[in-house]
Design goal:
The complex is a heterodimer.
Chain A: E1 4-7, E2 10-13, E3 19-25, E4 31-38, E5 42-49, E6 56-57, E7 65-67, E8 73-78, E9 87-94, E10 103-104, E11 108-112
Parallel strand pairs in A: 2-11
Antiparallel strand pairs in A: 1-3, 3-8, 4-5, 4-9, 5-6, 7-8, 9-10, 9-11
Chain B: E1 4-5, E2 10-14, E3 19-21, E4 24-25, E5 32-38, E6 44-50, E7 56-58, E8 64-68, E9 73-78, E10 87-94, E11 100-102, E12 106-111
Parallel strand pairs in B: 2-12
Antiparallel strand pairs in B: 1-4, 3-9, 5-6, 5-10, 7-8, 8-9, 10-11, 10-12
The chains are: A mainly beta, B mainly beta.
Chain lengths: 113, 112
């Protein structure tokens, strides 16, 4: 099993450009999450999904959109990138029970110039 | 607001010395606590988790943590660290299973 994979691993965007980050998991997990990691701030939740076709906002959702059309995939979109969105983005998934831990992807390093 | 506080942003420690990384969380009736480790340029991996029962939880790589409800703490300990333990450590909590709240991380540096 590949676990949680993220595409791409690195990306450089110019301000105003758009892009989509893809997260895929092969563990049949119900819940999926997108986080951003910034120095000194830990992981902050952007959006999450508790099942196919559902999404919800997390702590820092502004400037991002998500979709979960298939259970195994969770897409994160930036419609108009800003330098403040320069970060490392992590996807995670879990069964959704309260006692189940999250499984993380390797991360995507995004730079917006 | 529900939150997790990691009191130390950086912890240097000599090889083979003991270490404790501190974590405090917002109080709640029920809580599930986790410690994750992140090696450079990698995602997070689970070290251990507290769900219920015994307050002393053992994890991988010789780490353990103690849940203290009265002090709302979940400190991570290891009796003897190795160079390979150099990494970033994150404490996390969930109350409902929907959302997880992470601390800001503690950078552990093991000095030879």
């Amino acid at each position: 099993n590949a676990g949680v994979t993220q595409t791409p691993k690195f990306r450089v965007l110019k301000t105003g450009q758009s892009m989509t980050l893809l997260c895929a998991q092969d563990m049949n997990h119900e819940y999926m999450y997108w986080y951003r990691q910034d120095p000194g701030m830990g992981l902050r939740l952007i959006h999450y999904s508790v099942g196919e076709g559902t999404t919800a906002k997390g702590e820092v959702p502004d400037g991002y959109n998500v979709s979960r059309l298939k259970k195994q995939n969770f897409l994160l979109g930036l419609e108009s990138a800003a330098p403040s969105q320069t970060s490392v983005y992590f996807c995670a998934s879990t069964w959704g029970w309260r006692d189940s831990e999250q499984y993380f992807g390797p991360g995507t390093r995004l730079t917006v110039t | 607001a529900q939150s997790v506080t990691q009191l130390d942003s950086q912890v240097p420690v000599f090889e083979e010395a003991p270490v404790e990384l501190r974590c405090n969380y917002s109080s709640s009736v029920s809580v599930y606590l986790f410690w994750y480790v992140q090696y450079p340029n990698q995602g997070l991996q689970l070290l251990l988790k507290y769900l219920s029962g015994s307050t002393l939880v053992k994890g991988i790589n010789g780490f353990e943590a103690e849940f203290n409800k009265s002090q709302t703490s979940f400190h991570l300990r290891k009796p003897s660290v190795h160079i390979s333990d150099t990494a970033e450590y994150f404490c996390a909590v969930t109350y409902t299973g929907n959302q997880f709240y992470f601390g800001t991380g503690t950078s552990l540096t093991v000095i030879p």
